[in-house]
């Protein structure tokens, strides 16, 4: 049997009358005259197929059918009110779910402060944080499986994506503490020519990998890579064991290992760029809120 649709205005009128049990007082609460209230109740009774109130001179009471309907009517109105409130929160960017991709190294720079500030401002927003390198982030943005990406070395142009630079970082030399060059305040890149290198595989981050190898090429040598690691924490750990040296973005210095020394490099003109990425046609208020938070609390460039 098909269930009749119960319009919300009729349910509202019914609940108010059930609470007042007086047509005059109920009409006053609803801000309408008594005849329209009576019409609303009659229409609802027609849909139910039974009387909801007994009407006697000076007295109005609920029928068994009315008593049965009252809890469900209140629940329906509460559910709609809650749904409207939730929709307003999501529509205003104060609630909902925001999916953020980030390059692992950004956990050492902009990410913690951004997430902390955003959560403080919008505690009802659920943040779905996904660690991935730049290329998978760009693919995920195109596939709409993330909403915002925090990437290193974004492409110069993408017809569907927008990019905004968050910060730029210089490079540093990553050395075992016992390495002779660790005694220097700064290191010339060519001084690393005879040392084995520990680097991320190019597939993990082609632009960053190419920047590092180009630094070496400009200094007159090709780095002799003897070890690869997919995480910068692992790169530093391998350097600490003496398996090689590395070049990395300056924020790597926040990985504190006793056996690793970080030194400025000279000349120090190359910088790696960190950017926030999002879909140009994305009208989500949550994305707009995140971008505003990022712009208001943008970190100083290292």
Automatic annotation (TrEMBL):
What does the record give under GO molecular function?
A: DNA binding; DNA-binding transcription factor activity
**Organism annotation:** Actinomadura meyerae
Query: Record keywords: Transport included?
Result: no
In this chain the HTH lysR-type domain maps to 6-63
Q: Which InterPro entries match?
A: LysR_HTH_N, LysR_subst-bd, WH-like_DNA-bd_sf, WH_DNA-bd_sf
A Pfam family (short name) is LysR_substrate
- Family designation: Belongs to the LysR transcriptional regulatory family.
Q: Which PROSITE patterns match?
A: HTH_LYSR
Q: Which SUPFAM superfamilies match?
A: Periplasmic binding protein-like II (SSF53850), Winged helix' DNA-binding domain (SSF46785)
Record's protein name: Transcriptional regulator, LysR family
Q: Does the keyword DNA-binding apply?
A: yes
| GO CC terms, sorted | protein-DNA complex
Origin superkingdom: Bacteria
Matching entries from PANTHER family are given as: LYSR FAMILY TRANSCRIPTIONAL REGULATOR, TRANSCRIPTIONAL DUAL REGULATOR HCAR-RELATED
| Keyword annotations of the record | DNA-binding, Transcription, Transcription regulation
């Amino acid at each position: 049997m098909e269930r009749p649709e119960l319009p919300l205005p009729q349910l509202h009128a019914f609940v108010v009358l059930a609470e007042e049990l007086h047509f005059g007082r109920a009409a006053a609460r609803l801000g309408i005259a008594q005849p329209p209230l009576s019409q609303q109740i009659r229409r609802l009774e027609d849909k139910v197929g039974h009387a909801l109130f007994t009407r006697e001179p000076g007295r109005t009471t609920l029928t068994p059918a009315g008593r049965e309907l009252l809890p469900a009517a209140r629940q329906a109105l509460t559910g709609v009110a809650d749904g409207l409130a939730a929709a307003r929160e999501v529509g205003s960017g104060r609630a909902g779910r925001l999916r953020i991709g980030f390059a692992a190294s950004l956990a050492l720079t902009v990410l913690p402060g951004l997430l902390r500030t955003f959560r403080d401002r919008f505690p009802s927003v659920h943040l779905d944080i996904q660690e991935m390198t730049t290329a998978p982030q760009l693919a995920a943005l195109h596939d709409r499986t993330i909403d915002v990406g925090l990437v290193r070395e974004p492409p110069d142009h993408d017809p569907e994506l927008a990019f905004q630079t968050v910060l730029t970082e210089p490079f540093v030399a990553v050395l075992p503490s016992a390495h002779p060059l660790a005694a220097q305040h700064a290191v010339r890149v060519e001084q690393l020519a005879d040392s084995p290198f520990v680097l991320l595989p190019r597939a993990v981050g082609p632009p960053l990998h190419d920047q590092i190898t180009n630094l070496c090429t400009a200094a007159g040598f090709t780095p002799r890579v003897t070890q690869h690691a997919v995480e910068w924490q692992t790169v530093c750990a391998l350097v600490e064991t003496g398996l090689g040296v590395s070049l990395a973005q300056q924020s790597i210095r926040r990985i504190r290992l006793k056996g690793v020394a970080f030194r400025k490099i000279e000349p120090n003109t190359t910088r790696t760029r960190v950017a926030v990425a999002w879909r140009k046609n994305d009208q989500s208020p949550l994305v707009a809120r995140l971008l505003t938070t990022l712009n208001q609390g943008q970190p100083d460039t290292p």
